[in-house]
Amino acid sequence: MEKLKEVRNYLVIHNGNIQTQQIQDHIEINENNIIIYDSTQLQIIYTSNECQLFNVFIDIKKNINVDLIEIYQLQNQSQYQKEINIEQNSHVTRYVENDCLDGQYILHDHVQVGQDASIDCAYVELSNYSTKSKMKYDLNKPGARALVRLASLASNEKKKEYQISLCHHAPNTYGDMDNYGVVKSHSSLIIDGIGKIEKGNYQSDTHQTNKIIVFDDGCIAEANPYLYIDEYDVKASHGASVGKIDEDHLYYLQSRGLTKQDAMHLVTYGYFLPVLNFIHVDSLKDRFNEVLKEKVGL
Fold first, then answer.
1. Which of 54, 102, 109, 275 could connect to 16 by a Cys-Cys bridge, CB 3.0–4.6 Å?
2. What is the pLDDT of residues 139-191, one digit of tens each?
3. What would you report as the CA-atom Rg of the chain, rounded to the nearest whole angstrom?
4. Do 47 and 17 contact (CB within 8 A), yes or no?
5. β 40-48/65-74 pair status
6. Segments of the chain scoring below 70 in pLDDT
């Protein structure tokens, strides 16, 4: 993928090493450590053709706004261990797209959110690969906030498993996740959503919604919500649904001249569109729209 035209800062990291670097703002890079000091936009492309574990640490300093765009374009079996630290009163909008060619990809994502800091993160998982990934968000100080959205398509007999956790380690913290999945062609998709509020962390909110649409017989689909609440003065909710596309929706679209297959593709397109709410860069919105249309068959 080429550099997005609006983005000032651009990195290509191949097999754990920086291959291309175009940095215009105050960003420090020391091997696998990336430190961001000022409000900015940063695009990172990860490429790999080796079966290895790669570590990346991103530190976002106080009182700044950052758009972080991460694209994975991997071959073979690769695993990334990523640590992201967001310091006090900073806000991050994050877009993570896995555009892997084939094989297996594993991401262990650990995000730590400081006092009055926040992150909005969209995971876009539409390509043809298998994965068993974990994303954990630690809300460590009062006022910390995390919104997470997953859009995952499992097809062509691939297996995709996710464990997404919102862990409240301080009072007055807020976490919300919306996980959307589509599974077809004898594939498997499992989403475990975990909300955890520890004792003493009063007036915290943790919420989650998990929805999977099943296209074909012979697929495996699970949406598993878990809440671990050890405090009374909190708000918590969860919802989960697994099923086929609403026949009334298909009938309506077919009555307007679409074939059943085209109608199913159009419903899938609309199902994943909420990810756009997490994208602020116009050229990235255009890219997401084109990728989504391609993957769902429009």
1. 54
2. 999 999 999 999 999 988 889 999 999 999 999 999 999 999 999 889 999 99
3. 19
4. no
5. parallel
6. 1, 102, 298
Nearest to 205 by CA among 165, 179, 178, 176: 176
Please give the pLDDT value at position 28: 94
Alpha-carbon gap, residue 117 to 122, rounded angstroms: 17
Measured CA to CA, the distance from residue 227 to residue 252 in angstroms comes to 37
Residue 204 is predicted with a pLDDT of 98
Quote the crossing angle between the two packed helices 260-272 and 247-255, to the nearest 10°: 120
Residue carrying the six token digits 């374009």:
73
Beta-ladder partners of 148 = 121, 177
Single-letter amino acid code for the residue at 177: M
Residue 272 token pair: 């994943």
Paired tokens of 101: 């060619």
pTM of the model: 0.94
Half-sphere exposure of 206 (CA within 13 A, CB side): 29
Residue holding tokens 């919802």?
239
User: Looking at residue 6, what is its pLDDT?
Assistant: 84
Amino acid 1: pLDDT: 63
Q: Give the residue carrying structure tokens 């955890």.
A: 196
The structure tokens 């990934």 sit at: 133
Residue for token pair 């919105």:
285
Rounded to whole angstroms, how far apart are CA atoms 228 and 178?
Answer: 18
* Three-class DSSP labels, 103-157: CEEEEEEEEEECCCCEEEEEEEECCCCEEEEEEEEEECCCCCEEEEEEEEEECCC
Using DSSP bridges, classify how beta strands 77-86 and 104-113 pair: parallel, antiparallel or unpaired. Answer: parallel
* 27, 126, 245 from 144: Cα distances, Å: 24, 30, 36
For the packed helices 260-272 and 282-296, what is the interaxial angle rounded to 10 degrees? 150
